[in-house]
Write a structure and sequence with these properties.
This protein has 162 residues and is mainly β. The protein has a domain at 11-115: Jelly Rolls. Helix content is 5%, strand content 40%. A 6-stranded antiparallel beta sheet has the order 1-2-3-10-5-8.
Length: 162
């Protein structure tokens, strides 16, 4: 039996400019093979990840603390504690999140693991297949053309006005 109280665990600093926060890797701690899950925080005025969708991995997020703006297919919604966000596979489910507040935003992230998943990044026209990121067939760094994700968001959504 695996039990862990996430309220008593420290998150490790993670990310880079515009994507800063913390992470507590849980799947590794429990030895999960087919399910990915972790707790993640987004620092104020930071994004979760580049805007993307998966071909084979579904994702579910449970908001534990704070508020953020969720972008899905260029629609924007505010989420807060207790909200569950589900992303199905496919291009109609492109998504990311932005912490528009001055407080941390904390979520539990859960997804199935697929060795054959392909991840698409519509804002930058990139593809990530088997850990190899390409843009128009040329190998690029993961954050290439996503260093400033705010340029893909309308100003009102960045202010939390949705």
């Amino acid at each position: 039996m695996h039990i862990l109280n996430i309220l008593k665990e420290s998150l490790k600093p993670a990310g880079r400019q515009n994507y800063k926060g913390g992470v507590l890797e849980l799947a590794e701690k429990f030895g999960a093979k087919n399910l990915g899950f972790h707790v993640e925080t987004l620092d104020p005025k930071n994004f979760s990840c580049p805007y993307h969708y998966h071909e084979k991995e579904e994702e579910l997020f449970l908001v534990l603390e704070g508020e953020a703006i969720v972008r899905k297919n260029n629609e924007f919604r505010k989420v807060g504690p207790g909200d569950i966000i589900f992303y199905e596979v496919g291009s109609t489910s492109a998504h990311n999140m932005y912490n528009h507040t001055d407080l941390p935003f904390k979520i539990l992230c859960v997804s199935n693991n697929s060795d054959t998943d392909v991840c698409h990044y519509p804002d930058s026209n990139k593809i990530n297949q088997s850990g190899k990121v390409t843009q128009n067939g040329v190998a690029v760094e993961y954050f290439h053309d996503e260093e400033d994700p705010a340029k893909y968001w309308p100003a009102h959504a960045l202010r939390g006005e949705v």
